[in-house]
Amino acid sequence: MKKGDSVKVPEFPKIFEEIDKVFASQGVLAEGLLSYAVRPGQIQMAKLVAETLEEDRILLVEAGTGTGKTLAYLVPSIIWSSENDSKVVISTNTINLQDQIWNHDIPMLQDLLPYKFNAVRIKGRSNYLCLRKWYSDYQLSIGDMGDRGFHEKLETWLNTTDTGDKSELNLSSIEETMWRKFSADDATCHGSRCSWAQECFLRKVRSAAARANIILVNHSLLLIDAEGGFGILPKYSKLIIDEAHNLSGSAVNHFSLCLEKGELLEVYKLLGQISPLTRQAFSKDSENRKRIDEQEKLIMESRSQLYGLLAEIFSKIEEFYSELWGGKRQVRIKFPLHDAYMESITDLCSELLNCLGEIEEKIKRFEELTEEFFPGDVLRMITSELDSVRKNLVQLTQFDSQEQVLWLEEQETGVSIRTAPLYVGNILADILYSRLDSVVLTSATLRLQNSFDYFSEELGLSQLEDVLLYESVQPPFDYCSQAKIFIAGDLPQPNWEKDREWVEACAGAVAELVKICTGSVLALFTSHRHLLQTYELLKGPLAEEGTRVLAHDIDGDRYHLVEAVKRAEEKTLLLGTGSFWEGIDVPGDCLQCVIITKLPFPVPDSPLFEAKVEKLREMGNNPFYKLFLPVCTTKLLQGIGRLIRTEEDFGFVVILDSRLTSKAYGEYIIDSLPCEPLICETKGICRSIEETISRRKNIHPVNL
Q: Most buried among 38, 186, 431, 652, using CB within 10 Å?
């Protein structure tokens, strides 16, 4: 099947009949939910998912806001897994969506559907408390609790928790550091030999996963499991990936490597624990004490050598960074331009590899001598850290400049070396899609200019066309009748040389729009600095007029700010950046207007984008149209998608970036918008919004 071909849904009478029974106007959901309404797009998507599961295919399906895509893939997944006694894994990117599925959708379907099914949410090991570590006097004796309040907090929580999942605790950043002392990990896990095996939270959730029909994970754990050969999750062959537009970004993060001073110093510190613990564990007349002392001395000698190598390597790295630094926190290493520098660093890394290998061998011999007496967790932790660092070093010394990007990055602990794959599509195809029977990838934004080409290539699907379906499912509402999109053509274009002038003009336009709106307003920024400047300009004046101004990371985190807008009795202006562009849901009259202050182009000088630009030019492609514009447009559509969430919603989107009207690429973005925008001056936009609100108030007095 070729890209863009219309998908004709074939007949699968049995599962399709079951889907109809669930979604029909007199069906299961209608009987159980007062607010239920039949959505043709939802039923269409549910049948496409069913077809994909039945026919062992790959489906890329765009489902616009309001389609009800979560139920559209949950229902056929539950039916299929129940009838086939098999598993379906569902992966999300954001915790918000995962919480919605776990806390609301799955319990609701368990109550309403005539199918008995089990579901489990599973996370990475470090999210779960290790009871053996917690109750071990040894661990408590060497761990500096720092704040006894944290210890008491965990003790109280342990009396009520069924999951052992740290997300129940709402930990601070300091507490997160303390948590790591007691979290489950591969290195120190005793498995079935552990005295706490029967009560182990991780074993319980994995046991539940083995019995479950539906397994809920995030993209990170999905990739960890796939890269490791599917050894974490129970065996499965059917996968649903929601928020699929974020999968490639998650994969880049997952397959990135980092050589940083802090991680290596942690190994050095762990090695330092061997001597005091040895003195504590063995008396002078122990039978093997002399041999143990000799082996301990050898380890300490290698530890000193390790410290010297670390000092030399990171001195060289910082010297390299200073040489290249041009005011940037991230500096890309280019080949063959920087061959000489990298050769010296690579040689030192090879020496470090040998040193780590020698330490590992010495620890193994030390463990053989002490295994009956010595508390093995420290040794296991050291061995695990050594193994992790060695893998990173090996991959760093085998760096492929054609497939990866390498850069230096300044951090609080010093300068680190980082690598990331240029493209992850081929990796996803190799470790994920090719090993499964069926995969459904869905999101509200997977087409640009009515084409799936960009995401098909980005996600590694273009090579799987023989089993691939493309489809776009329209939401139940008519966006163009429920929203108006405006582009302000009179504001100055963003310009770093006149940055303050642009911020002041932008803030003025936001203030005017807030004044004429009767409901709350969300203003989205691409820079926290611009957000802060706007906040400082508007907070006082708008407060005097009765509008509360809330800003991301100033007045709270995303969750609490969004909840504040939902509960607010007074008009609120919410200023957001970063994560506010997607994943937040404010339906109904709580949100009347979304303002896009600036087109969300990616940072052009980040090492990864810089390398991709060069690669695209080598291939004869225009990087702006092949990379920057699709990324920008996708994020813009996600931001616009915050406005209309239900069939009853109505509101306005105002884009303040006048480049849409003056630059050639504006047509590309405008063609991707959900409806034709009106282009005019800011005053004209305010007048049009005011007239529309007045007209709708007369027609729908209750809603406004």
A: 652
Contact 154, 134 (CB under 8 A): yes
Cα distance between residue 623 and residue 404, in whole Å? 17
Please provide the DSSP assignment of 214-283 as one string. EEEEEHHHHHHHHHTTS-SSPP--EEEESSGGGHHHHHHHHH-EEE-HHHHHHHHHHHHTHHHHHHHH--
pLDDT of residue 6: 46
Q: Which two tokens stand for residue 352?
A: 């470090």
Cα four-point dihedral sign 106, 107, 113, 116: positive
Token pair 């590899």 is found at: 353
State how far the Cα of 579 lies from the Cα of 371, in Å rounded to an integer: 49
Residue 17: count of CB within 10 angstroms of its CB: 9
Residues whose CB is less than 8 angstroms from the CB of residue 437 and which lie 6 or more positions away in sequence, other chains included? 56, 237, 238
**Any alpha helices (H) in 602-681, and if so which ranges?**
607-618, 623, 629-640, 659-662, 666-672
Q: Omega before 336 cis (within 30°)? A: yes
- How far is the first Cα of the chain from the last one, in angstroms, to the nearest whole number? 48
- 375 touches 274 (CB < 8 A): no
Ramachandran assignment for 162, one of left (phi > 0), alpha (psi -120 to 50 degrees), beta (any other): alpha
Question: What average pLDDT score do residues 637-660 get?
Answer: 92
Per-residue pLDDT at 7 exceeds 60: no
> 3-class SS at 394?
helix
Q: State the Cα–Cα distance between residues 511 and 545, nearest whole angstrom.
A: 11
Let me know: does 69 contact 474? Beta carbons within 8 Å.
no
Q: What is the pTM of this model?
A: 0.88
Residues 593/521, Cβ–Cβ less than 8 Å: yes
**DSSP letters for 528-591:** HHHHHHHHHHHHHHHHHTT-EEEETTTS--HHHHHHHHHH-SS-EEEEEEGGGGSS----GGGE
The answer to whether 1 and 465 have CB atoms below 8 angstroms apart is yes
Q: What is the dihedral of CA 68, 71, 72, 77, to 10 degrees?
A: 160
**Contact yes or no for 122/209 (Cβ under 8 A):** yes
702 pLDDT higher than 50: no
pLDDT class of 465 with cuts at 50, 70, 90: low
Q: In which band, very low, low, confident or very high, does the pLDDT at 3 lie, cut at 50, 70 and 90? A: very low
